[in-house]
Every structure is written in structure tokens, then in C-alpha cells.
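Input record (one chain):
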Amino acid sequence: MNKTDTAEKLAVFLAKRDGIDKLVKTFQYVSKLVQWHLDTSMPAVTDRAKKWEVASGISRKAFRTGRFLNGFNTIRRTAPTQTPLFQALTILSNGGEMVYFFFDHLLWLSRIGVFNPNLAARMSYVSAFGEAVGYVFFIITDVIAIRRCLVSRRMLLAGDNDDHLDREELEEKVRVIGGDVVMRWMSVAANLADLVIALAEVKPNPVCNHQLTLSISGLVSAWAGWYRNWPS
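The corresponding structure, as predicted from the sequence alone:
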């Protein structure tokens, strides 16, 4: 890949709302990692990193304005041909995400002073709780889908080819299934990382709330998102 291709793909990536979000999320958690590393040795730099983290976090909330409607539309368009299991998983995962983004909007408005700042803690808890619920069911959905993809690929490679595909068509179908599996594993990684961050808010504990844990989780989520949203 030459530099021109990379620049063009970066422009396409940053033209997406999710692309901007993953870039700013990287800034947010790199700054948190800097705070952890330089906490006592360079307090001036740590203070600047903290301000960068807070500014990035608030900016991301602004970018996500109206995002809760995505979950509503996904639930509304749930295909009636889906199995009852996948219909239930779609409703639960996207329902949790709707709660997350809706209360995240209210949290943002509280932190910038539009609403009573004293509401921020409550909004943060409800948002994180919905986020955690959504991520659990997104992970379950992806794991089930990965298992089905692997079964389909194994059947194709074993010669169970009911569609009578020729060699090139068979290889292409196997390649597509393999790509879908990789993308779903990236989704699982991102959702697991974000689940850790949500649990740090819902039920604080020394492991989830440690700056290093939060930094690594945030960067795993951001970079998995980079991979999923990067133009092919």
C-alpha cells in the first residue's frame, strides 16, 4: 500500500462519525496511560494529560449526539425471518445500547452545565449500566455467529457443497466467511474491553478502576474499532 492509498483511506475513515470517535478515544486513553506512567515523576505533564483526557471524553459525547436512535432503528428493522433467539438478543443488546447513549447525552449536558451538574453521577451510572447490559448480549450474539460461521466453513472445506460451487466460488465463500469471523472477533474484543470500563462505573473495584486497566481496555476498544471501520 503506497502513501497515497493510505492517505485516501485515512480521509474516508475520518469522514465517518465512528472514525472520528475512535481517533479521539485513542487520544483519551493514551492520555490516561500517560497519567499512570508519570503520576509522581512529572506532575505538570500529568495535569496536562488529565485535561486532555477530560476534553477528549466530553468531545466524544458531543460526537455521539443522536446515536441512541441507531439502536431503535435496528430493533425496528429486526427481520421476522430471524430465529427467536437472535430476535431476543437483538432487542436486549440494542436496547441496552439505547439506554447507554440516551443517558450519555444527559450526562454530557450535565457536565457542560446545561443541566444540574449534581445529576452527572446518576446519569453516568444509568448510562454505564445500560452499556454493560448491551455489551453482554452483543458478545453473546457475536460468539454464536462465530460458531455458526466456523461450522459453515468446516462443512464447505469438507466437501459438503449443496450449492454446487466451483473451486473459485468455494474459495471466495470461504474467504468471506473468514473475514466475517475476524470482524466478529474484533467486535468481541472491543465489547469486552468496553464492558470492563462500564463495570468500573457500575461497580467500582481495584482491578477495573485501576488506571492501567482502564487505559489498556480503552485502547483495545479503540484499535479494534479502527480495524473494523478502516476502509477495505
